[in-house]
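hey m, so remember when u said the tokens were messed up on ur end? i reran from scratch. heres the input so u can diff it against urs
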Amino acid sequence: MAFPPFFLEELRRRVSLANVVSRRVKLLRRGREFTGLCPFHKEKTPSFSVVEDKGFFHCFGCGAHGDVISFAMQTGNLSFPEAVEQLAREAGLEVPKSTPEERERAQRQTTLRGAIEAAAAYFEEQLHAPGGREALAYLVKRGLDADTILRFRLGYAPDRRDGLKRALGKEFPEPLLVEAGLLRKSEDERESYDYFRGRVIFPIADRGGRIIAFGGRTLGDGQPKYLNSPDTPLFEKGRVLYGWAQARAAAGGGRGPVIVVEGYMDVIALQRSGFVGAVAPLGTALTERQIEELWRIAPEPILCFDGDTAGLRAAGRALDRALPLLKPGYTLQFATLPAGEDPDTLVLRQGVQAMRETLARARPMAEFLWDRELSQGPADTPERRAALERRLEERAHAIADRTVQTHYQRFFRERLYEFLRGSRSKGREWTWSPNRFGHGAQRSRSEPRTERPPQAPLIQPKRQEQVLLAVIINHPSLLEEVGEELAHIEFLTPEHEALSREMLHMHGANPDLDAGALQLHLAQNGYAGTVDSLLAPQVLTHAPFARREAELEAARLGWRDTHTQLLRRRRPQQVAEMERGLAGEMTEEWWARLKALHEQREDEDRTTGGLIE
């Protein structure tokens, strides 16, 4: 069965090669690539590489090479049609039927590309003809030399209704040129005319470098100032980036960051100045699909918009669209240009170093979002602070990925705490108590006191042990971080000690065990009664962070605070035992152990403000 080329290209674009390979191979990220043990031959040292942004895998040991379709074929023992159909189901794509109509469509795609290529050659020729003198002078005035004009295949569309129509009409039928976006039909549908007229032409390529559309800038006062090809079977404006192919090649070769700017000339100016990862959306704010395409090139592209109000609005719109899409390791950075400058003019007037310094000042997305919300108005009253808190809470909840969402909530808690503590130091009446994201401001005491993030409530040692175990039962993923500390706790109750050892054993055998599976295993091994007692209301009422519905970050902080309190409670007993041992046996080992205990307590005092008793 033959599949149309456009369908296979869309399938490869939608299906992540790294995700498919990771079902068979444990992959580790190394820079822009993933590595692992080759599934096609036995090896002990990883020689298998996955290059996600270019869509291929390669083994340097056995020479295996291919794309996502060939990987599915080889590892699943599938035929080409079977592999395509399987991947299409995963991607939610309907497999086109091999009909005469589909074959005709595939052929038409090829013919459309031919028409677009012929149009690009025509526009290039017209730029250097006598009629293109004004357009060429405009490009030279903007600082472009002949090599740059040739490399980007810049051209000119004469200011006449049928220039391109006449030039291409003998080779390509009129309906095809209309479908390619090169001609436009009149309102009465009786005649067609050139879509681009009297404009400097910027060819737009797909991710593989093939020209699929054009952008045109008027030389006079005509509107719109910039005009892009209409959407066609080859071109969808909301998913294409200008400079796409060059940026992919640059990122793959490690030749600098991916930089998102606003216009064609910005991309050209930056790429010719050495910033070969520059791209631009096509006259609109970044779309969700363009953001996903950017992440296929680089995990943290830098958005570099003009420093004026319009540029900041564009950055804000990009942030709004990217926020729900954030995922671990993939985000945006924001660089703001000096007022009155764009990348093109900045490089031309102040040089490449000025642009490097601007990019070096790029801010993480979380910081840009914080500054943006803080700039909405003063936060000098309880009500205004509550409004700021509410906006930040809504922003964090817009993130679909729960892990990233949790870290944004923690970031906002810390920033709010710092901000309102700073306000208090300036004589403000209200302070911030960040015991949980979503709680508001509280009136501070009249007497000065040491501010610190909230701690778990003070409870008896046995209850502290119960809380520590309850947190782990409901959030077993925390064992990856606190397992060693749990193993060193000397539990007062034998059943707690046994339960702790069993959970550590289970985690070692299955690190991905979730709360439900862990509780089932414990019940099957005779710990049902102990688990029930640990998850009883009288335990959880002291520690809401231990409940299953609590956020993982809240559970982590609560566990650490409770563990610190438990250690502090037991410290005097340990010191007394040390001093008794020292009295009976005056050795350097006893002195060293006693000194270490005192130093540990001093460290905890500095960390907690000395408030844990």
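this time it looks ok to me. The radius of gyration is 32 Å. if urs says something different then somethings off w ur setup not the seq
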